[in-house]
């Protein structure tokens, strides 16, 4: 790709170009050299963890915790609450994927948008997936996890 092509692609709208949606990671270029630091940052999910704790859900990084979180959100959350923690739910979904499959890892697109690079090489935009699902009022994090592991659509 020529430098001119690279320059113009950086101006194109789209997921990898333009403004990052929902979650953005900016700052140190050290994230490229230290992927664990990036994983730790995206695993914090303070608001989600506080909400889950208040509703009796322990977020331990397991696929089962995704199911428990789905149930709690279905029972207790209204649309406003669900949309308020959707970005952190996306980070948590990505965290479970990365921790359960050592071949998966967080990547940050040039615009600062974090995605999960799956073993197949496919970038899974967990933020877009979860935000789209939150608009319907049903996150179904466990289903998105199962689809991602199976390599199917999310």
Task: Indicate the topology.
Blueprint: H1 3-9, H2 30-33, H3 35-43, H4 46-54, H5 63-76, H6 79-100, E1 105-108, E2 114-117, E3 123-124, H7 126-136, H8 141-150
List keywords for this structure.
154 residues; three-stranded antiparallel sheet; 8 helices; 6% strand
Low-confidence stretches: none
Approximately how much beta-strand content do the residues carry? 5-15%
What composes the largest sheet? 3 strands, antiparallel
SSE class? mainly alpha
User: How are the strands of the largest sheet arranged?
Assistant: 1-2-3
Extended strand count: 3
Overall mean pLDDT? 83
Shape: globular
How would you sum up this structure in a few lines?
With 154 residues, the protein is mainly alpha-helical.
How would you characterize the overall build of this protein?
- This protein has helices spanning 3-9, 30-33, 35-43, 46-54, 63-76, 79-100, 126-136, 141-150, and strands spanning 105-108, 114-117, 123-124.
- The protein is mainly alpha-helical and 154 residues long.
- The chain has one domain.
- A three-stranded antiparallel sheet has the order 1-2-3.
- A hairpin with a 5-residue loop joins strand 1 (105-108) and strand 2.
- Helix 6 packs antiparallel against helix 7 (126-136) and helix 6 runs parallel beside helix 8 (141-150).
- The model has no long low-confidence stretch (mean pLDDT 83).
